[in-house]
Amino acid sequence: MNREIICDRILQAATELLTEGGREAVSTRAVCARSGVQSPTIYRIFQDKQGLLDAVAYHGFQSYLAAKAALPATDDPVEDLRRGWDQHVEFGLANPALYTLAFGEIHPGRTTRAAALAAASLAERVRRIAEAGRLRVSEEHAAHLVHSAGRGLTLTLIELPEEQRDPALSPLAREAAIAAVTTGAPAAGPGDRVTAAAVALRAALPGRDVLSAAERALLAEWLERLAAPGAPAA
Q1: Which of 46, 96, 177, 190 could make an SS bond with 51 (beta carbons 3.0 to 4.6 A apart)?
Q2: pLDDT at res. 232
Q3: Percent of the chain residues topping a pLDDT of 70
Q4: Domain HTH tetR-type spans what residues (predicted)?
Q5: In which band, very low, low, confident or very high, does the pLDDT at 229 lie, cut at 50, 70 and 90?
Q6: In the prediction, which pLDDT does 66 show?
């Protein structure tokens, strides 16, 4: 049988078990029984149970992000970030076992492939805001703050009994995070305008070949310093 078909059967079986009974339900024996595949095949494809669980989380987020990417972007990148936040939280609450598998286990210096995939999608949305001149911090700071706030909020809501979840909590956290990293249109004060301009120019650098590699690196360093939190106003 085709390896891809076998892999899909295993992932489907593991995902069903995860949804029904959580991480502990995804034993090699249970996956074999559900998928009709022998355990040596699972180990050959995924190496071990952790490899299988990582693949399950990655597969689930691939499907989610593909559907998310199919939605057309608007002319307002900040509104698109807001919409992306809401979709992220909704996905987590609809798929708590999968979300917890991807984001709930912390390993210093290491992230799951699913979390990295979600972070890349967020970074692209933040890049659009930077290109519009509406970030008050660097792209990296903005992405990390929004990612941390969204993940923490979603895990908190998952942990709470459904009847105790305050529907106002997610919008409140979302707007606080967005306000912390974006400016209005246009940026408010001189410091904000310098930061927004530096961030926007830095975001546009990769697509320009007028400068040499050394010149681009130097300019990027200057712009990063101007975009850093606490940088003096012009």
Answers
A1: 46
A2: 47
A3: 88
A4: 4-64
A5: low
A6: 86
> Phi and psi at residue 107, in whole multiples of 5°?
-125, 110
Please list, in sequence order, all residues whose beta carbon lies within 8 angstroms of the beta carbon of residue 213, skipping any fewer than 6 positions away.
none
**Backbone phi and psi for residue 198, each to the nearest 5 degrees, phi listed first:** -65, -45
Q: What is the band of 234 on the pLDDT scale with cuts at 50, 70, 90?
A: very low
User: What span, in angstroms and rounded, lies between the C-alpha atoms of 204 and 14?
Assistant: 42
C-alpha torsion sign, points 59, 62, 68, 70: negative
Please, where are the H alpha helices in 95-189? 96-103, 113-131, 139-159, 169-181
Mind listing the pLDDT tens digit for each residue in 65-102?
888 887 788 999 999 999 999 999 999 999 999 999 98
Are the CB atoms for 218 and 189 separated by under 8 Å? no
Tell me how far apart the alpha carbons of residues 27 and 154 are, in angstroms, rounded to a whole number.
Answer: 26
* Distance between CA atoms of residues 191 and 171, nearest Å: 28
What domains, with CATH codes, occur in the chain?
Answer: 1-47 (1.10.10.60), 61-227 (no CATH)
Using CA atoms, how far apart are residues 133 and 135, in angstroms rounded to an integer?
6
CA–chain centroid gap for 59, Å, is 14
Query: How far apart are the C-alpha atoms of 25 and 19, rounded to whole Å?
Result: 9
